[in-house]
Amino acid sequence: MSETPxxxxxxxxxxxxxxxxxxxxxxxxxxxxxxxxxxxxLTKQWRVFRFDLPGHGGALAHPAASVTDLATRLLxxxxxxxxxxxxxxxxxxxxxxxxxLALRHPERLASLALIAASPRFGTADEFxxxxxxxxxxxxxxxxxxAPERWFxxxxxxxxxxxxxxxxxxxxxxxxxxxxxxxxxxxxxxxRAGLGSVGAxxxxxxxxxxQITGPAEARTLVAGIPDARLAVVPGASHLVPVEQPAAVxxxxxxxxxxxxxxxxxxxxxHVVLPAAAPRPxxxxxxxxxxxxxxxxxxxxxxxxxxxxPDTYDSGIKVRREVLGxxxxxxxxxxxxxxxxxxxxxxTRYAWGExxxxxxxxxxxxxxxxxxxxxxxxxxDELAVHTRAALRNGLTPDEIKEVLLQAAVxxxxxxxxxxxxxxxxxxxxxxxxxx
Length: 433
Known about the structure:
This protein is of the alpha/beta class. It is built from 18 helices and seven strands. A seven-stranded mixed β-sheet has the order 1-3-2-4-5-6-7, with helices on both faces. Helix 1 (39-42) links the parallel strand 2 (21-25) and strand 3 (47-51). The protein starts with 10 loop residues before the first strand and ends with a helix.
């Protein structure tokens, strides 16, 4: 095992030192022990490297902001150990790390297996909602519901010890790191890049997986050149635990036959093509007499003037703060009459003000809630109470903001605000049945 600085991961090796390295990546809420039943067979051919996600399995709680961050930490760990080329198998979030490696560091990857994975995991709203529940209630509701998400009903009933192990694995995870991993999955979307995955790829899925099931697996196979699909019958999301023998056999066959050697001439460096030569500048036109009057030209959009358009960054921030469902509903209701107003709001409020570095989003939510109470805008208050929860405020902190507003904006205004916020908080923080 390792001692882990913030930019690396907790890890362990199993198997002979001289063997090629095979990495096993865990799912969200699990530890490297999810792979225990694969180890005896895999270590006959490979030196198996397993790692824990930040805050999982006793690893130090240094939250990772994105899947790219996790992949970078993994590579930093491998660099420190002198491991330059490897095979990789990852489950769910671990699979997302594998895709990230295949897209950004293809020279490192000899072969790839994606288990219970997807190019996009559900919707961003779903994972941010899960973060709100954990921030409010802790990990216990997520832990108690883990067996029904991870295993088929028959397996959970027949294997109570494994079911309890799964609950305790989640329950002992650091909540902040779990929330950060939810945010990482919320922003993960590589659908457009799948065609660039060059490593030999096996896509493996349980037939009963209700989270990232056969449909998501087929999306991966359709997008990744020459990828192969394996559907394991009678298994749900945590298929390496539920059907260990089948998964082990599939991994052995894949990595034994589809291990892509590094070309002898390869150096690990990528040569960028030379930039095309610029055409010579045109000769200056002779000066023309100034016109007495002229029709004003049509307004040139900001991007044509060399000024960056803030719409794209604005719509991204707007979705992150308010949620995809809310923004989609607003845009669907927008007709030609309201279109320019929505673009104005997106560019100015979200692309500029909400995107400024001077205040973090938690603070901006506090300011926004206070301003909405002062103005009596209770419909918008409901929207921004949800946003405040997504931005990391707890219900108790929202209560303190409204109490402060009651002093300076008036008790009647705060009374209506408490009523609206109470309903929203109840809806957003109650764990699903």
